[in-house]
Amino acid sequence: RAKEQGRNTYQFYTEGMQEREVKRLELDKDLNHALANDEFVLYFQPQLDLNDSSINSVEALIRWQHPRRGLLPPVDFIPLAEESGRITDIGRWVVMAACRQLAKWQNGPYANLRIAVNLSGRELDDESIVEHIQEALEANGVSADRLEVELTEEIFIQNIEHNLNQLTKLHKLGVHLAIDDFGVGYSSLGYLRDFPVDLLKIDRSFITEVTRRHDDAVITRAVINLAHNLGIQVVAEGVETPEQLNFLKNHRCDLIQGYLISRPIPAAELEKALSAGLLNVDTPVGS
Ligand code: C2E
Ligand code: MG
Ligand code: MG
Ligand code: MG
């Protein structure tokens, strides 16, 4: 009986795995067409400057409008794209789309906005990505200081020399560099000395309970002080409550990003919210 059950469990498990593998292959095939069919979209999440309550930057977060499965979040396809290498082309599309958006904004009421794009370590491996970013900026007549690149600590663990070289070139262009998900990446602090970092984004996992857990509060304060003493600005990710906001304001965090202000939203919705003055701590935007 036990043996039988064990075997059934095993069969069920392998079928599940096969099913997943089939789905994965299908998704990979679909990814192949997604760029050609223009199925990716950028959503934007504003960052609130705590010094003057202004919005001067937004993070671009990719979505895939899948023909059958609806709007897919990055977790459903970015890891797969990294495995298959398609991430290189997706990343190029993201950079180009961000620069096109900056060009649209640069002569109107939203000319102050900067866009932050996410680049994975895999994308930085690509020798020509820096050139591509420069070309995208030039083709759209956008100044490099409008663009920010967010990288996670993984880039300080592997290919360090190559990555330092890439980021130094990017920084020389005038692109701002941010370390994303700071504090969860197992890398050493030494790279803050060696790499041209402009911003640290404290990972959401420290912010969620920052007003309830002493250790999270201590870590968050320490990161803010460390960054400031190195001349680096700090963004808190995943701010959802007024209590978290107050804590961060009291401890001189520079910027916050999170559902308290707005969810990631399409460009048109962002423009509406900005002109209606809705992007503040009293009116969460987006569903
Ligand atoms: P990330 O760069 O750390 O982005 C922040 C994620 O947290 C976003 O999820 C955002 O929607 C979510 N978030 C923001 N505020 C809150 C909040 O208050 N509460 C909670 N619970 N979540 C919040 P999203 O859009 O699903 O993106 C997930 C990750 O996918 C990103 O993490 C980033 O690593 C990656 N990603 C997104 N767009 C791109 C892209 O264009 N290229 C690459 N390579 N990766 C991307
Ligand atoms: Mg990010
Ligand atoms: Mg992040
Ligand atoms: Mg994160």
TrEMBL record:
It comes from the Bacteria. Signal peptide: none annotated. Residues 24-278 form the EAL domain. It is found in: Membrane. This is EAL domain-containing protein. It comes from Marinobacter azerbaijanicus. The chain holds residues 467 to 753 of 753 of the full protein.
